[in-house]
From TrEMBL:
Protein name: DUF1697 domain-containing protein
InterPro entries cross-referenced by the UniProt entry: DUF1697
Domain of life: Bacteria
Length: 171
């Protein structure tokens, strides 16, 4: 049975409780459910299912159980691990204070930007079919890079630090 990583968009400790999120998935029959951090990361086992189908099911389950809609972007753990093992950040010289991030796309972009791209505090280094490898430097005006990523890839995305992705893979 495959292990999946669900990355919910728009979750914070103020709008979602991880024990409730975990219970939603368990009540729906998913097994070995674990939540990580408080930003909408859920790892679980389920029968092999096409990702778009499972994403829609999870969104319905979560909305029914939590009373709020959170878009879900899903990855199979083994496939994400293989992608990360290829070290998508290799070969990119980054400033010492740069934060490595991965943006997950629900689907490939219609018009991928020419890379690398540096704009509004973000360095977009590489793009696989549905993952964007980036780095940003903290800015006094907050996460400007998120706005730039949405401009380039739309709103059906969610971003995690590389450290968070690694934690999800270990769960």
């Amino acid at each position: 049975m495959p292990r999946y990583i669900a990355l919910l968009r728009g979750v914070s400790p103020q709008n979602a409780r991880m024990p409730v999120l975990k219970a939603c998935l368990e009540d729906a029959g998913y097994t070995e459910v674990r939540t990580l951090l408080s930003s909408g990361n859920v790892v679980f086992d389920a029968r092999a299912t096409p990702l778009p189908t499972l994403e829609k099911r999870l969104e319905k389950v979560i909305e029914a159980g939590m009373g709020r809609h959170f878009p879900v972007i899903l990855r199979r753990q083994d496939q994400l691990q293989a992608w990360l093992d290829a070290d998508p950040f290799a070969g990119h010289a980054l400033p010492a204070d740069a934060k490595r991030i991965v943006t997950f796309l629900r689907q490939p972009p219609e018009a991928p930007p020419a890379l690398p791209l540096v704009a509004e505090g973000v360095r977009i280094l590489a793009l696989s079919e549905t993952q964007v490898v980036s780095a940003y430097q903290p800015h006094e005006d907050g996460p400007l890079f998120m706005r730039r990523l949405e401009q380039l890839f739309g709103r059906e995305i969610t971003t995690r630090t590389l450290d968070t992705v690694k934690k999800c893979l270990k769960a």
